[in-house]
Amino acid sequence: MEGVDHLAHERSKAQFDVDQMKVVWVGSRHALQVSDRIARLVASDPVLRKDNRTMMTRKELFKNTLRKAAHGWKRINELRLSEEEASWFRHYVDQPAYTDLHWGMFVPFIKGSGTEEQQKKWLPLAYKMQIIGCYAQTELGHGSNVQGLETTATFDPKTDEFVLNSPTLTSSKWWPGGLGKAATHAVAFARLITDGKDHGVNGFIVQLRSLDDHLPLPGITVGDIGMKFGNGAYNSMDNGVLRFDNVRIPRDQMLMRVAQVTREGKYVQSNVPRQLLYGTMVFVRQTIVSDASTALSRAVCIATRYSAVRRQFGSENGGVETQVIDYKTQQSRLFPLLASAYAFRFVGEWLKWLYTDVTQKLQANDFATLPEAHACTAGLKSLTTSATADAIEECRKLCGGHGYLTNSGLPELFAVYVPACTYEGDNVVLLLQVARFLMKTVSQLPSGKKPVGTTSYMGRAEHLIQCRCNVQKVEDWLKPSVILEAFEARAIRMSIACAQDLSKFSNQEEGL
Amino acid sequence: MEGVDHLAHERSKAQFDVDQMKVVWVGSRHALQVSDRIARLVASDPVLRKDNRTMMTRKELFKNTLRKAAHGWKRINELRLSEEEASWFRHYVDQPAYTDLHWGMFVPFIKGSGTEEQQKKWLPLAYKMQIIGCYAQTELGHGSNVQGLETTATFDPKTDEFVLNSPTLTSSKWWPGGLGKAATHAVAFARLITDGKDHGVNGFIVQLRSLDDHLPLPGITVGDIGMKFGNGAYNSMDNGVLRFDNVRIPRDQMLMRVAQVTREGKYVQSNVPRQLLYGTMVFVRQTIVSDASTALSRAVCIATRYSAVRRQFGSENGGVETQVIDYKTQQSRLFPLLASAYAFRFVGEWLKWLYTDVTQKLQANDFATLPEAHACTAGLKSLTTSATADAIEECRKLCGGHGYLTNSGLPELFAVYVPACTYEGDNVVLLLQVARFLMKTVSQLPSGKKPVGTTSYMGRAEHLIQCRCNVQKVEDWLKPSVILEAFEARAIRMSIACAQDLSKFSNQEEGL
Hints:
Oligomer: homodimer
Largest sheet of chain A: 6 strands, mixed
């Protein structure tokens, strides 16, 4: 059996056009070509090697991140890669780094929440990486409840400055990637206080470290929060802790697109609707859903290949044993995960459409579909990331003992993926948001208000409650319309039953 | 809030005698006292510190293991600890080490499978640790299917020796703990071949490394198989790979309690029944179930304390937020795991009784209850280890982002625990064994054969199939007899339905 290509036979049995499927998977023939070309570029670059990551100490690993980030930046510029190519490049470097937050949170947030003037000042510095930004929102004691943040930014009219303070241990910023070692600047979130009045949480651009010697500026206490799950995984990231002790910043470093503080210290809402910020959230969650399908497809790919190669039991008369992929116990665990990887890819594409749709409507000041779009992205973020994390672990177990070696790729894939269940909205909290939206939709049905988008089936509640499944034979389940109606009937029945249960509480939140 | 003991208030509300519960948990007041005393001994010993394990390189970590093992051995002897005390000592050192296999597999296997003469020769050497043993069964290509092992031990009557060979890559021994670096000897499993005839798998004592310079002996290729899941976790263990190239051992190093090879090369079964070996399996699995409750209780303890201290949302008028333990969404995930930790503890105690019972019956040549006991331990091993692994990960998620830091203890607890789902019988394979036993039991019901032990309820199949649950009010569910009968009714109905489904296949194994 040695030296045999155990997979060639399996591959030869494919009943679909593999090349065509690749195009469907990536999105277009053009995208496939770019992706392939950049994948080869990254794979052949010795600086971007990944094979020894699990053996490095934390310090070596972080140095490796710095080296890769600097090298990647250099290559992207040398080769004059387009934004599409650069994005594939970063995708294939595939190592969490402070640059993820710089490009993925710091820059977009300034774009979304900064005035034109602020964008003109800060974005060129960020684009050239003359400053490195992070996104300092979460505090040690405050994660999901952003409105409960404790850090304060108090306006001092004497000097036209804000004074930032973290008065307690629980008010320490905790987790921001890039904060621990790399960032020179942060978008920091703090309660805005003017003239003794608390205006709630706002974002501020704060310089953390000197651009000369990279040392923390006066009043700034900053550091790395330590080791995280897995050998390599997110340990390449410098998640950090930050405390402010009377740190002063000029007034124009408050991000002022939706609200301003005037020279006199007056708090003024602008005429830019706050809902515009939801557009960004839909965008970020769409990326998370797409990333789920990528992570899941890698895990499923490893487990499927292993299942084809691995043989165990079933040998007759001393012949070869049965491939484990031929056992129903293996198939019933593996194949639904394979199907989910495709499903998440296609729902990710659909979310791209939803983002475009939401953006267009917001620009036309039409906010009617926003709650549904918001619930939809919250639900899909939660569903796809939880399912993917569990599925990676299941794929690991499907490889038996071999899945426990980091060489299988699966332990690291799990450890680096699983925070997706927590960041950008804890999955349980997000599901509660979806539940609240569904309960509200149900409560509005009697008034005749038409549910929109993915909940439009709820408008057919009366039919769905009464209808019976008219499946006669097994093949009927292959009709998507039959499955869809079954899910719709189940969803509306469960929603209405839940609403009835909750109506027994004087306060709906008591049911949580 | 800083400096406040956030847990004191919660603890003051306990509605049971905490001290009494500790006794119930550990088993007796005596055991609690010993356990407490040894826990303090280990915790105060600077050599046995655990706080920096996740920061060490693999090499540092393995040196740390060697240091702890040598130090532990020295302390156990210096303090003249009893076997009970020494066992608690090793429990609290709590770092996977080659000694686990030496004491837990090598020594017991020689006891169980060696003749009196062999025990007299090898056990004193092992007890004094003049030799270090490992248990070399699993091969790269052969895990669950032990009968499929490829390594051969061919008797050479000319020299009165066995010749060991690993003819292929897949026949390499792969995984044995202690093999990679530490072991001088192995109990190695190989197909016994005499006069061209294959007698199946037997155990052999093989020296691997020189007792002078610890270098591998001629014909032995041996090494470590690399990094495993987690930062520290099982990376303190030297899981190894081993190949034999015409390695010769004297005939008397075949473990000969149940079968012998004579000087002439004749294969002879002894009059010791093979079933006796099952006693050891029941013993090992009983330990695994007890260990499950220990691992789970640690995780639940961390998550419960966190849930009491952590506050999020629900603040009214700027007051403190709600403790997350007061949310039903947290309770419904956490409390069943807490209950499981207790349930697994008690079922572990029951398995100790089962082991005693099986042992007594085996000694009286009574094998009637063995299949049921075997199915029972297989099912409980699978159930408790899968539930515990999933529960540790759930506890990690219940601590939100903080569970992702190794400082929470949970990532390491998961990574070090999860192999329990694979070793000593893969959980899916074990469940199939339970299923086969249940199907056999169902098939024998019409013949009037009385099911024994935990399956005796199946003898009441007719009643259970017809009976209706007579619960009238919610409180009725607090009666254990009601719950028990409900489970019995459900189990027998599902077993019979499954047997009927399987009867449609010409070969029952096709249903797998």
